[in-house]
Design brief:
The complex is a heterodimer of chains A (112) and B (115). Chain A has 112 residues and is mostly beta strands. In chain A, 0% of the residues lie in helices and 54% in strands. In chain A, strands 2, 4, 5, 9, 10 and 11 form a 6-stranded mixed beta sheet that branches. A 5-stranded antiparallel beta sheet of chain A has the order 1-3-8-7-6, with no helix packed on it. Helix content of chain B is 0%, strand content 54%. Chain B has strands at residues 5-7, 10-13, 19-24, 31-38, 42-50, 53-56, 65-71, 74-79, 88-95, 105-106, 110-114. The chains are: A mainly beta (112), B mainly beta (115). The A-B interface holds A 32, 34, 36, 41-46, 49, 51, 88, 92, 95, 97-105 and B 4, 31, 33, 42-45, 48, 50, 55-56, 91, 93, 95, 97, 100-109, 111.
Chain lengths: 112, 115
């Protein structure tokens, strides 16, 4: 079993809909949680970063962390065709080494 | 800032040949990472450096892979001899541990095909 599980999708939604993405993990030592967006043939770029449990909002994006359930989520409101990409969750146990463990990524397609 | 710069962007080589991938991290970053991405295995950490010193190379698949960081602005990942199963996208990434907590910035990748 992988340390971080993420549904590969694809997830297809109409423009304007809410996109809901999630990851589960098994390592209770993870404290830092990130979401990366990766466009086709590009490197991942950081979208959201959260430390420990709670919610964080940035524009149309909301990240949620539930450490008790070992479950993290990313919501994209008012989705746009430009949001079509692969979304990867990533997490690490701490500042020592910044060693990230990634989920496999969920491919999202927002249809005009 | 120019971001993390990788070269070559694309490489096609024959099995058995040596492959060298290059990376220039973001200036001021003290961590450098090499990742490999495939459809089957996703994004995997191969090795990372802190202040030019290799810290964890447990992700390096085998002795055919080696990485060096001779100075703060340059790193190489070498595969010798290359095999078809090494075909993947190789990403270099860098970070500063004290900045925004563990945020890592990726280059655009080196797309390697071994035939």
């Amino acid at each position: 079993q992988k340390e971080v599980e993420q549904d590969p999708g694809p997830l297809s939604v109409p423009e304007g809909a809410i996109v809901s993405l999630n990851c589960t993990y098994s390592n209770s030592a993870f404290q830092y949680f990130m979401w990366y967006r990766q466009y086709s043939r590009k490197g991942p770029e950081l979208l959201m970063y959260t430390y420990s449990s709670g919610n964080k909002e940035d524009g149309r994006f909301t990240a949620q962390v539930d450490k008790s359930s070992k479950y993290i989520s990313l919501f994209i409101r008012d989705s746009q065709p430009s949001d079509s990409a692969t979304y990867l969750c990533a997490m690490s146990a701490g500042a020592a080494g910044n060693k990230l463990t990634f989920g496999g990524g969920t491919r999202v397609l927002v249809k005009p | 800032d120019a971001g993390v710069i990788q070269s070559p962007r694309h490489e096609v080589t024959e099995m058995g040949q040596e492959v060298t991938l290059r990376c220039k991290p973001i200036s001021g970053h003290d961590y450098l990472f090499w990742y490999r991405q495939t459809m089957m295995r996703g994004l995997e950490l191969l090795i990372y450096f802190n202040n030019n010193v290799p810290i964890d190379d447990s992700g390096m698949p085998e002795d055919r892979f080696s990485a060096k960081m001779p100075n703060a602005s340059f790193s190489t990942l070498k595969i010798q001899p290359s095999e078809p199963r090494d075909s993947a996208v190789y990403f270099c990434a860098s970070s500063h541990w004290a900045f925004s907590g563990n945020t890592i910035y990726f280059g655009e990748g080196s797309w390697l095909t071994v035939v």
